[in-house]
Amino acid sequence: MENEEAAALDSSWLGEEPLETESVFANDGVGEIPFGPIGDVEDRELMFSSTYDRVCSEYKNHVFPMYEVVFIDMGFRLPFSEFQREMLCWTKMSPLQIHPNSYAFMRAFELLCVYLCLPASKNVFFSFFTVQSGTDWVSFRQTQKMFEVFAGKVRSFKERFFLVRLRSAAALDTLFKVAKDGVQERHPFFPLSWSQNHFRFESKDFGQTVTNLSDEEIDIRQQLWAFFQSLPRRTKIDKRANPLMSADGTLVTEPRLINTHELLTSENFEDCLGKKMKDLGALVSAGSKKISAKKRRKNVQSLEHLIAGIGVGSSFGPVVDLEGEDPPEELVQKPAKKEKVGTPSKQSDLGPPGRSKAIADGAIATMKALEVAAALNNVSLENEIRVNALAQERDALTAKVAAIEEDERSKRSVVEERDRQFTAMEGQLAEARTALEEALALLISWLRIRRLWRKL
């Protein structure tokens, strides 16, 4: 008997696979769901589809289908977050029209935003991704790669879907908005069954260029990209796991993508992302310790020259009370006078207010100089971090090669020992054969003598 929740469907625009694929859970609506809840059990319930239902069937009474892999392997839970709801609304698709790998991208992007305390938005998402539309499932493709493709049980997802029924007002509020046009009615934020609306647009209509983003969205995008760029790079290798070298003999590196599978399956995604930053912090610490004293002295000397070039207020004399009476002369460090005929010294005539302003100006100039020095130092530090990371990868590869060579030597020794044993056995066999031949010849001679003896 066909599921009463499903309705007739205009399938002229659909591909064959969605129309022909039956759920492995199909059991005419009876049985036990073989996995845990997908959200608050008081607001939703899980149902088997009938043998007549398809993933692209139209369902009524607040029922919609979902894929098992999205919940079991990707940690997805209902209700839909505001970001997920915004994504479905923008792309004009039902939840099952999106390929599960794209769900993984959505979830990973959202978790990264949460970790960095940034709001997740579809505009920023589609500045990194574009839509790949077909007649069946729709996928998101990265235009700037940050995430690895989810590696899991995605290939067999099509026939593993079930039905979700909303059974509380709170659950309905997460999927339906109220239209007050005289009569109070509920309309879904996005299609709950397969919709043709998405395919009335071109893929480029869903994308976002940086020029279309607001200032706030551009700032969010830059912070996300800065986090990705801060991750240590990895050395590229060939098919034989050998590191690739450039023409000048340096290691060829590539960006280290965020492991989507590890991020979505970890018990604590913050620990997963924090580990990447911790690894980076270790490299920063190691790199900072290896900055040579010569470079430090050079930066200090540059800073001293910058400070020395500042005008009034560049003195580093003792700190004195600027608001009280004049301090004793022995506590005041007078600035050096410039020897110029006809130009009296101005600094020596400064009273408390003047000295206050002069030292304040000096402090500002000093801070600017420190910023310049810090920038110079950061350039050296970044280079040291990169060199240190490459050195660590080189050492790891060297250790791996050494282990392989040691294993080969061990195997070679075993083979040589077996060869020696085989040679010895061959020698023993040859000696045994010679002895046997001699014994046989002796036996034949004895038999001949015996035969002659009998004739006599």
UniProtKB/TrEMBL annotation:
- What Pfam families would the database entry show? Transposase_28
InterPro entries per the UniProt record, alphabetical: Transposase_28
Q: Where is this region: Disordered?
A: 318-356
Domain Transposase (putative) gypsy type, chain residue ranges per copy:
70-132
Q: PANTHER family attached here?
A: MYOSIN HEAVY CHAIN-LIKE PROTEIN, OS06G0165300 PROTEIN
Q: What is this protein called?
A: Transposase (putative) gypsy type domain-containing protein
Species: Medicago truncatula
